Amino acid sequence: MKKKITIGSDYLTENSRYIPKNKQNGLMKGEHRIWIESVKGLTRSEYFSLLDAIRNFSRPPLVNRNIALVSIALNNGLRASDVVSLRVGDVLKKNKSKIIEQKTGKSKTIYLNNCREEIDDYLEELDYEDENDWLFPGNNKEGHFSVHGFYQMVVRMARKTGDEKLVQKIGTHSFRKTFGNTLFENGTDVEIISQIFNHSSQKVTRHYLGIEQEDLDNVVENFKFE
After folding, report:
1. How many whole angstroms separate alpha carbon 162 and alpha carbon 158?
2. What's 2's DSSP letter?
3. Which of 2, 41, 82, 100 could form a disulfide with 178 if both were Cys (CB 3.0 to 4.6 A apart)?
4. What tens digit of pLDDT does each residue of 123-135 get?
5. Is-contact 150 80, C-beta < 8 A?
6. How do residues 22-54 score in pLDDT, each as one tens digit?
7. 12 φψ region: left (φ > 0), alpha (ψ -120 to 50), beta (else)
8. Interior angle at CA 214, CA 209 and CA 46, nearest 5
């Protein structure tokens, strides 16, 4: 029998424990460790396939919670740690709200009109007492839902789609990367995306989104000395 360890409200086997490295978490899956760099953005069809899986395979009381989690994450390009640490008052009857990023300590404005329906559907069934309660409470209701719990949920739902390519690329950072990649593909300047992400430089943003190699390939591919 595998030894179980506790992280927050989640029970994990010894082979699936979170191991911190340079402020980024890597998940052990057997002998393989998955870091943020291996997580990719989603295509439109992959995202909606994931949503369908959440609707069809989540336990009924968790459907709206899980949809709200991924919708808030994607539509604001948030890290999982910032989504799970939201309070009810951050989203209740608001179109935008200021939060403090868990990783950087920097202020960030999130916009909620783009996921208002998903939030309201979830709030209708959420048993909360006041605006200071966690928006996504953990199992014991004393803390919030964990990043690892968020990760486990999206991986489980990705597997339910039967799309192995989606399974290989999915992670909580998939939503943040999808947000950034979509902005870039729609013509948003990297400098603006960098500011939205609160990155220290445009170079960090380009590396994070994986667009450096694409630019290099385009330069070389289109070069001809005449």
Report:
1. 7
2. P
3. 41
4. 999 999 999 999 9
5. yes
6. 333 444 444 444 444 567 899 999 999 999 999
7. beta
8. 55
